[in-house]
Structure formats: structure tokens, C-alpha cells
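3.2 Worked example (two chains)
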Amino acid sequence: MRTVAETGSTNADMAALALNGAGEGLWLRADRQTGGRGRQGREWVSPPGNLFISTLVRLRPSDPPAATLALVAAVALEEAVAVFLPGAGVTIKWPNDLLVEGAKLSGILLERSGDAVVIGFGVNLAHHPESLERPATSVGAHAPAPNVAIVAQTLAECFDRWLGRWRGEGIAPVRDRWLARAHPRGTALTARLADGEAIDGLFHGLDASGALILRLADGAQRVIHAADVFLL
């Protein structure tokens, strides 16, 4: 694992390393980011004491669909974080945000170029932002803030294990674990699509490909493949 004191974005750095031939399994952690990004280019606040880390997966012809790596990342991060928040009720919100008591604890950003998929994790360990559109939290708000390097190593081990299962057994065990750690079926959600449409419904699980299923007010089901999803 490589560690730097400061960088713009660990995902951007990892993408550059991938372009230069870096192999799968490399991890890059920064104590501080100056240009962290979330989904759709949103700024990710990156103070020291939190976890900012990226890794690289090289896709193989026999791999499951690349998009399902979002679920792999989610279950690996949930497993790692649960070590430091036992009994805190960490849940997963589609596709890969972690929540504690409905507040966002982390974010995951996947970016693909050719056979390289860069997966970046941002986890609020010691600090969390206030006054956002949606509530945020940190590990330190519920338990002693853990050592960042230990969390990083735990995540790397969990991710390696789940990546191996994804490759060896397919998406099914990953999907099962995701569902077991997700908010309850029937949770009210709103999905904001890229075209601006907002769809309200009740969480009804995942389809076989990992897409979100919402049950609408009229009883119909809507399958969501890409959206920002929020608890209502």
C-alpha cells in the first residue's frame, strides 16, 4: 500500500498509474485530498483523520459485469467499517453508500478506462461535514475514531476477499450479502435520474444484475440502473 501526505485525488492518481501499466491490487492512500470528488463531480471534503483511498481492478474476460463491482466495494467497506462500529447498525444504501442511523458515513466512486476500474473510497472516520442537503456522520460520532492506517489495511483485506468471491462465484453471494446489510425492504426512497426525473417508491430489493427495484405507489415495480438515491 502506498501512502502520501497530500494529493489532489487518489482516484486521479490511481487512474494515471493504471494508464502507465500498474497492476491490480495496488492501493493508494492520502492523509489529505485537495480535490476529492464524489458522484457526478461533487466535491468530497477531505480533512486529515478521515480515509481517502483508491485501488485498481483489472477486468478479465470471465469476470461478472463490471458495474457489479459497485456492490463488491459496498460489502467490503461495510464489513471493514463494522469492525470499528460494532452494533452501530451500519446499513448500505444503493448502490454503495454506508449509513448510520440514516446519516451518510462514506462514499465510493468507480471510474473505468478500458480494462482498468479505479475504485475510490472516502470514509468519515474522525470528522464529518455539517449543513449538507442530507445528514452526514462519522465513526468518531459513535465510537473512538480508529487509526486510519488500520482501517485502510482492514478494507484492503475485505475487498480482496470479496473480489475473489465475485470472480469465483459470480454476483450472487455479493448480492446476498448486500441485501443482508441494506436498509429494510419497504424503506421509502427517492431516485433522481440523470434527466432530472425523481421517482419515489419503496425499496423492493435488487434484480439479478444488482439494479435497484422500487415498488411504486400503484404497485408497479421500477428497475433503476443509474440514479442518485436518497432516503425519504
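3.2.1 Second chain
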Amino acid sequence: MANNKRSIYSALAANLLIALTKFIAGAFTNSSSMISEGIHSTVDTTNQLLLLYGLRRSRKPADESHPFGYGKELYFWSFIVSILIFGLGGALSIYQGISHIMEPELMKDPFWNYIVLVLSLIFEGTSLFIAVKEFNKTRNGVGWWEAIIKSKDPASFLVVFEDGAAVAGLIVVMILMGISHSFQIPELDGIASVIVGLILVFVSFILARESRSLLMGEGIAP
């Protein structure tokens, strides 16, 4: 549990540090993909807070109204997090991207965008490294996908998926933003937003599937 908290706190700090700077850089340079990244980081920050709340609630001792304890609180909040990634992160990023493709705006000097993206990549990469390191401690030599399916602690792999999606999104944005600015193709900035949104939708689908299994009473592994 302490290990999970460590990975969640590191992700929370990273997302909180870069969410505001992404929004400022996006507004200053007319970059749709940077606004999408800002939305992504804001959603991720909210998700870390909800996971911490779920962890705290799940540790409540059993009482008369809940004789088996509150352990499934964590599964419930993990499911809420997966819905938020889809609804707020994925859908809003896709909407933002489509809007920018339909009404493209030439990007201003993206210098500060690159600074923010590189710093974000460092923060998110560090957070991902910590999350993977903590998750590896729980795998006991089992393969990654098998460990995720068998895990009864969604917080352990949820942060890994979130940070992995964040790093993938940042790389996509950096590449397409560079091409968009170099060749004056503003639509590519919107396409980057759509790709970021699709990554989030894919991640949310996997997390929702696993959280739902746990919430519905998935059996204990042998």
C-alpha cells in the first residue's frame, strides 16, 4: 500500500507541476494539442486525488453496515477514474482536435511549447519510472499483462497506464507539432490532439474493464 501511495504521489506532483504550464503555453501559441495536453494533465491530477481518496476509504475497518469492510471502495473509485479518463480526457481532446482541424489556426512561435513538452516528458518519464518500479515489486516474475489481469489492487497498475499514456501523448504531440510548424500545416496540430484523445480512450477501456471485473467480485487467483 505504501508503494502504491509513493507512485500516486509522484504522479500527482508531476501532473500538478505541468498542467498549468501546458495551458499557458497552449493559449499563448494557439496550439490545440497543447490545450489537449493541459486537459490530460488536469484529468490525471484529479485521478490521483480520487485514487488517494479511494485508498483511504478502503482502509476503513468493518462496521455494522459493512461487515466485510470497505475494500471495494478502491475498485469503485478506480472505475470512476477510468470513466474520467474517457469522458474528460479522451473525449475533450478529440473534440478539441476536430475543432482545430475544421478551423485551423497557424501556430505562433512554438519555442515555449517545446520547453514545456520537454519538461513534461522529464516529469512524466520520472513518474512512469517510479510507477513501473513499484509495480514490478508486485509482479513476482509474472508477465506484465498477466500481472495486471490477476492484480487485485488497481492502484498499482492504474498509475502505470496513466503515465504511459501521458508519455506516449507527449511524444506524438512533439513530433506532429514540429512537422506542423516546419511545413505550415496547422491541421496536424489538431490531428495530434485527436491521437492523444484516442490513446486516452484506449487506456480508459482497459482500466474500466479491469476495474469492473474487480468491482463485480472477480475471483481470487490460485
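3.3 Remarks
The mean pLDDT is 81.
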